[in-house]
Design goal:
Blueprint lengths: L1 H10 L3 H8 L5 H4 L6 H21 L5 H6 L3 H16 L20 H7 L3 H19 L4 H39 L8 H10 L5 H8 L7 H12 L1 H15 L1 H18 L6 H15 L2 H12 L2 H29 L5 H17 L14
Helix pairs in contact: 1-16, 2-4, 2-12, 8-17, 9-10, 9-12, 9-15, 9-16, 9-17, 9-18, 12-15, 13-14, 13-15, 14-15, 14-16, 14-18, 16-17, 17-18
Length: about 375
Amino acid sequence: MATLSRCCLPSGMCFCVAFPFLNKTVMDYFSTIDAFSSWRIFVLVCGLPSLISVIALYFLPESPKFLISKGKYDQARQVFQRMYECNTGNSKYSYPVLRLKGECDNSNVDMKFLKKRPLSIRIEENIEKLMGLIKVLFSLPYLKYLAISCFVDFGLMASYITMIMWFPEIFERFNAYEKYQTDSPELGVCVVSANKDTSTNIFEEFLKTFRKCDPSIDNRVFIETVIIGCSCIPTAVSLSYFMKKLGKNRVLVISLVLSGTATLLLNWVQNSTQTIILSCIFEALASLMEAVIFCVVVDSFPTNVRAIALAITATFGRLGAIFGNVIFGVLIDVNCVIPIYVFAGLQIASGILCLTMPQKENYIPLH
């Protein structure tokens, strides 16, 4: 499920969504309405899958493991019966398991009694339980695994989210550069960005466009973005195979190191075609890696602290996305080399650190 959700994010850039809703020539009808523009409609359409997912989740049953941990064995058995009926086609009443055992006593009497206690006592006990879980999480060896997973997700999201957001701007600059400087022998990303300030001829048309308040963008940018969005499809299809064949950790190491190398090579591209190729490699490798990171976190922590570890890891990933966008936006026209090297270094370092995370068979149980 996590892999599928991560696959859907970059797939939103694919042809069926991006080109019809971003292309102004297709949206002439909506352009006559002041309240609507192509980007607003695009954002609306991209938000629909999340809304549909929320509605679909409402009809899904609760996790049997969660129900068992809460002492709700009858409800857990009903979920198992439903799964059995869907998977086998047999009647749910032929489900062979008659009685469940788990973390709680096989009776709901105690749970009903606990619910009758005052709210203040229950809150106090929940806080004490949470602090106990945090204490376990911040003890060795789990503290080490938590620090590594946070750094890896921070480095990945700082690089991935930033580069994906800035690729259209980079492509637009490349297209303008190639249009006015056809005899240039070198077209590195940072060379193009540097010439934005040093050459008045290259971006003269940009300035005229902005003065007229006409935000026109070459449709070639959208086509290139669609190509990059489609590049993640092969990796999404083959990811589960490679995870079973190589292991989650090795998949993370290989993907992060290769995507970091692709980011680093953006400094030495010679034309926009090479830029698109490297961008596709980056997108194909980096787009699904957060789902793999979460899988590694699930394997590295015991059940009772797993949710907290995932939440902290995801938080650092979002902080990384903010960090990456800030430094790239500030430095792209000042010294583009710095963020490129930072992002490449973060990805490669994150990949190497993944070697120290435990494999599932090396899971350390909580005593």
